[in-house]
Design goal:
heterodimer, A: 164 residues, alpha/beta, GMP Synthetase, Chain A, domain 3, 2 domains, 4-stranded mixed β-sheet, 3-stranded mixed β-sheet, 3 helices, 9 strands, B: mainly alpha
Chain lengths: 164, 252
């Protein structure tokens, strides 16, 4: 009998699954993997929190997770949990730097900020030249999780991963 | 099995989301500019995603083996309990952004309250996620209402007309029926009168900034929560449900 893989192998495999809409980030860096615990069947139970409820990438990500884990052991279950709700606060510092390096302004501020109800705007610095003189082109950019901005100084368009 | 009122309360949250999501999807390929085409369909995706989670939860509470597809595709219009406002035809871009503003502000405040309750933890989890999405819906719609209201004579006129047409549908948002009262008594749903006070503040501030002003409350439309709909819902459902009904159980 093949001995079951240990927890580190499971995490290592999970780190090979990328978000198809941010292919330079894996699901562990995105904070989508909440925990890996032993399952009742003697394998592993992986708990995943989806990012956006309407995110079309979620199904692909779930398939990919099942695929890489089934290569490790037949006894792997994937469970989707909604609580606590995924937040951009779980995206690590390193992942934020990767976003910037790929021309995407990482999330800023707190999702608990309510000033937007009265029309207050936040400043999103340009990830390319660092200027704070930028303008919102559209709150919904290339994907639901990103807004489309343009820099007034270097004139380059860029995506901003919304605080969420 | 959970109380009927509980199941209905969750299912009608899903009904609001799926019907508005379907309406917004009609803008795909028809937006006035590319950015707005993308924005409106992204809003649609958010609502449909919320509906999926809510319907799945309603099905689990009901414990009759009904999944999300049953609620979306295999019920007739009388079984839908969405607010009438969300089923109205998409109209022009001015009408769409005005509806988005009036409804998304309500939906945001409602989900915010539902995220904070502890009677139904799964609902709280779905609401906590939805509220983050709706925040951007409110921001998007508010920006357009101010920009077009305080814009050209033409854009102002269209926004004004849309506001007049939509206002009679705002009363239903805050008029509790037996299901709302049950959910409030159970400690799940917010007090609609308190919700209205907050909604009024946000709406009035934006409409003033948009130079439109808040309309006077008059006679209000109602019936959606009792399954009595405008003629528009039937056509919307016919389009949305035809494929699933013609090919039950079909998968991609």
């Amino acid at each position: 009998m093949v001995s079951p893989p240990d927890e580190r192998d499971v995490w290592k495999q999970l780190a090979t699954v990328v978000d198809p809409e941010l292919p330079f980030l894996n699901v562990v860096e995105m904070g989508m993997v909440r925990e890996v615990v032993p399952s009742e069947a003697g394998g592993w139970l992986v708990r995943i929190t989806p990012t956006y409820s309407g995110c079309p990438a979620t199904d692909v990500i779930m398939q990919d997770i099942r695929r890489v884990l089934s290569a490790l052991t037949a006894d792997v279950e994937v469970e989707v949990v909604h609580h606590p709700a995924w937040t951009t606060d779980w995206i690590g510092e390193e992942a934020r730097e990767k976003m910037s390096a790929h021309g995407i302004a990482p999330p800023i501020g707190s999702h608990a900020d309510k000033s937007f109800l009265l029309g207050k705007k936040q400043t999103v610095p340009c990830p390319l030249c660092g200027s704070t003189s930028t303008r919102l082109v559209s709150a919904f950019g290339s994907t639901a999780c990103k807004a489309h901005y343009t820099c007034n100084d270097c004139l380059e368009p860029f995506d901003h991963f919304k605080c969420f | 099995m959970a109380a009927q009122e509980h199941i209905r309360y969750i299912a009608r949250l899903g009904d609001d989301a799926v019907v508005l999501g379907q309406r917004l999807s009609e803008w795909c390929g028809h937006g006035p500019i590319l950015e707005e085409d993308i924005a409106l369909t992204n809003l649609s995706l958010d609502y449909i995603g919320q509906a999926r989670a809510l319907y799945t939860h309603a099905g689990a509470l009901e414990a009759q083996g009904h999944g999300e597809d049953h609620f979306a595709y295999f019920r007739d219009e009388e079984a839908f309990e969405n607010h009438l406002m969300v089923e109205l035809p998409k109209g022009d871009f001015g009408f769409t952004v005005m509806r988005q503003f009036l409804f998304a502000t309500f939906a945001y405040l409602r989900m915010e309250a539902l995220a904070g309750q502890t009677t139904d933890p799964e609902l709280a989890a779905i609401a906590a996620k939805s509220v983050k999405e709706l925040r951007y819906h409110v921001e998007h719609a508010r920006d357009w209402v101010v920009r077009l209201g305080d814009g050209t004579a033409e854009s102002r006129e269209r926004l004004h007309r849309s506001l007049e047409q939509l206002w009679p549908y705002t009363g239903e948002l805050f008029t509790p029926d037996a299901v709302d009262t049950w959910a409030e008594t159970a400690g799940m749903a917010p007090d609609l009168a308190r919700l209205k006070a907050r909604w009024d503040d946000v709406i009035t501030a934006a409409l003033t900034e948009a130079t439109l002003g808040r309309p006077e409350d008059g006679w209000m439309q109602a019936g959606g929560k009792a399954g009595r709909h405008t003629e528009h819902l039937g056509y919307l459902l016919a389009e949305m449900q035809s494929l699933a009904r013609k090919h039950p159980g079909v998968t991609w």
